[in-house]
Amino acid sequence: MNIDLYAAFIIGLMGAGHCFGMCGGVAAALTLGMPGQHMPGQKRHNRWLYLVCYNFGRLISYAIAGAIIGGAFAGMAAYSGYATALISLRIFAAIMMICLALYLGQWWQGLTKIEHVGQFFWRFISPTAKSLLPLKSPLSALPFGLLWGWLPCGLVYSTLSWAAVSGSAFGGASVMLAFGLGTLPAMLLVGSVAEQLKRLLRNLFFKRASALLLLTYGIHTGYIAIKQLL
Known about the structure:
It is a single chain. This protein has ten helices and no strands. It is an all-alpha fold. The protein has one domain (3-229). The longest helix is centred in the first third of the chain and has 41 residues, at 40-80. The mean pLDDT is 80.
């Protein structure tokens, strides 16, 4: 399997603490007012269905974004000189990985500025997503997740840079799907297990240890790409 898929999965897994902050509240809010919430046995069953449908929609949006970016950059690379263009893009992806590592380790927060770029588009999507609340059924959580997957997020944008160097629309979709799967444990766990996971992911030592792994991978990837370019 392509190592970029493993990297994307690890980014999603290690960045799950960020996901708690960005989407965790949404995942909790989407179950408010759901049918049967006053029936304890049915509430737990329904909550799982809502969360699964919501996250499935979110993963679909990631895959679509990855396919668009991967296909677009593959086309431009083929037009302008395939090998050199993709190597240059890989250097850019390595830089984004390094920026992400610095962000997750809380050494530099410049990555949040990239999220402002997506705010322009999100202001058009957000009203539609909010209009779906309260959700009437688990199936209605699917389009809600599909829309919420476009929430401006530096973590997603960093991974999209890897989708851009995948060489195809399918490769880009695969990278983003791997990233989405990495975020699932944090987004699906509920109750005391979720609270324990949240504490671990927000632990500064864990965050910086994870960030150092990503930093090493980003530097190594950039070094290999530069050697190919020279």
